[in-house]
Amino acid sequence: RMRPRQTLTRASLRSLLVDWALGLFPQVLSQLKRSDRPQSEHSCEPKRWHQRLMRLPTASLLCQSAPAAATRHKEQSLRKHGLDVLVLLTGTTLLTALVLVFWHAPVEPNMGVSQKIFYFHVPSAVAAYLGYGLCGLSSLIYILKPSPFFSRLALAGAELGSIFALAVLTTGPLWAYKAWGRAWMWDPRLSSVLLMFLVFTSYLMLRRFTDDTESSRRIGAVLGTLGLLAIALSRFSVQLWGGFHPQVLTGSGRGIAASMVPAFALSMVAVLLLCVTLIAMRERQLAQLNEVQRIGRELEALSAELSELESSREQHPSGALNER
User: Fold this and answer.
1) Residue spans of alpha helices (H) in the chain
2) Is the pLDDT of residue 263 over 60?
């Protein structure tokens, strides 16, 4: 009956408390010092304290089997190495794309150097569609089958999609001022991109300024799913209503010169890799934050249990406590 007591060592409990809740460490340490007293003083009290402690989720977390912990560590290591490779690939591609854009691609005769905004404006728009689309699809999956992973993925996609959409709304007026003489026109494409940005900004505000509960996540998932309509509206706005916005790659646009294709293609790949890398990093950060919050709640429960045991020690003599 006393065998589980050997797995809950003072060192393992102290290590977890130092890592996750330094503020709770003094209370637990005092209890551990009390439990180090000889068994002859309080023969039944330490065992009863230990049995009550083992029912807590934190105690079960500390007493996990070594193979399970080793497997989890191996999976985290593989995931971290994969993310490191993705970061290295993204950085190399970005640097190569910048070299091609500014040193290899020719200068457009009509717009001059300002035409090079094109190499960042269009990839940023595609990356915004990717992030927002990932948010909408993850929200739809969350409605059908709730999962913390898809909730985190939707939030990460909306955040990175908003960053790239903001880049589109910044570089677009710079291009428009040079091409049209005006920084902003209520063109169908421009208006629909702004509407899409506002829809997912409202999604982010809902997720950020409400409690992280199941009901708030479901409401956010519904809003994220409705954002798919805004994505479709923005994507096909030129085909539906026309407007001044050019269709360089499809439709009636003039296209780009063959000498510009390598720089544009590599810029597209680099920006999309950057978007995917940042989404993966953000999802991992959210997972770690959720794990910290979960362990914090368990430590609070442990602290409350230890406080209750301390008060019971003070109120009842050891003999009376043993009789109970």
Assistant:
1) 3-7, 10-20, 25-35, 45-54, 57-62, 66-99, 118-144, 148-179, 188-208, 214-235, 237-241, 261-315, 318-323
2) yes
